[in-house]
Amino acid sequence: MSISDWAAIVGLVLASISLGWNILNEIRKAPRAKVHAMIAGIIQPGSRIHDDKDYLSISIANVGSRPIRINGVGLLGINGGGTHLKKSTL
Description:
This protein is of the alpha+beta class. The protein folds into two domains: 1-30; 31-90, no CATH class. It has one helix and four strands; from the N terminus they run H-E-E-E-E. It has one helix at residues 3-29; strands spanning 33-40, 55-62, 74-76, 82-84.
């Protein structure tokens, strides 16, 4: 093998590494949302009023580097029934 053949092989390896790195960076840049949901009660500090009802608390955070847009939130029940929260509540 000549020096030009070795240079071509090294160029191919470096180009492949660069392509893989760029693909990985594009995947990591994708918008990603982390969603936490929990059942919680409401407690008002300093108040004797205690609400025994349970409320659904949903927290959505953007953990990607690109912006995300949330158009609505839907809930799916255990028996397959579902609902969609109104946009005015978001």
